[in-house]
Amino acid sequence: MTDIILPAQTNNHGTIFGGEVMSYVDRIASITASRHCGLPVVTASFDSLDFLSPIRLGEVIILNASVTWTGRTSMEVMVTIEAESLTERRVTGVSFLTFVAVDQNGRPIPVPPIEPETEEEKYQFELAKERAALRKRRREKFDF
């Protein structure tokens, strides 16, 4: 996903609002999760969004997303955020989100597993298992 940063998207520092970045991240991650499973998905968790450097007015935002892990009905998606000016391209953030596939009644349904192939995919897959366990422990603390 690629877009140019316009004045209405920036704050008084001339950089993109964090909420704008979050919106981009949620959109590309949901598209990626839905494409993986071929089903509608809902955002279950916005685990993290680390801002590494700002994206300035007039720069181009570039987002890349991939499914890093799958559970029975859920998927973790990693989004890398980059900024591009006329002279450079740099990583400006990284985010991890969890999505759940749902049927026409909004009930969770199974998703196809992923098979990590590259060393980087295997590395992210193993880290994702740890993040999934942490999410589970965090949710158990909130017995609603």
Describe this structure in words.
There is one protein chain. Helix content is 29%, strand content 34%. It is of the alpha+beta class. It has one domain: Hotdog Thioesterase (Thiol Ester Dehydrase, Chain A). It has a 5-stranded antiparallel sheet with strand order 1-3-4-5-2. It is globular, with a radius of gyration of 16 Å. Keywords: Hydrolase. InterPro entries: Cytosol_ACT, HOTDOG_ACOT, HotDog_dom_sf, Thioestr_dom. It comes from Effusibacillus consociatus.
Key descriptive features of the protein:
144 residues, alpha+beta, Thiol Ester Dehydrase, Chain A, fatty acyl-CoA hydrolase activity, EC 3.1.2.20
Q: Show unreliable segments.
A: none
Bin the strand percentage.
25-35%
- Name of the CATH class: Alpha Beta
The total domain count is 1
How many individual β-strands?
5
CATH architecture: Roll
Q: Going by CATH, what is the homologous superfamily?
A: Hotdog Thioesterase
Number of helices: 2
Structural shape: globular
Protein name: Acyl-CoA thioesterase
InterPro entries: Cytosol_ACT, HOTDOG_ACOT, HotDog_dom_sf, Thioestr_dom
Keywords: Hydrolase
GO molecular function, one term: fatty acyl-CoA hydrolase activity
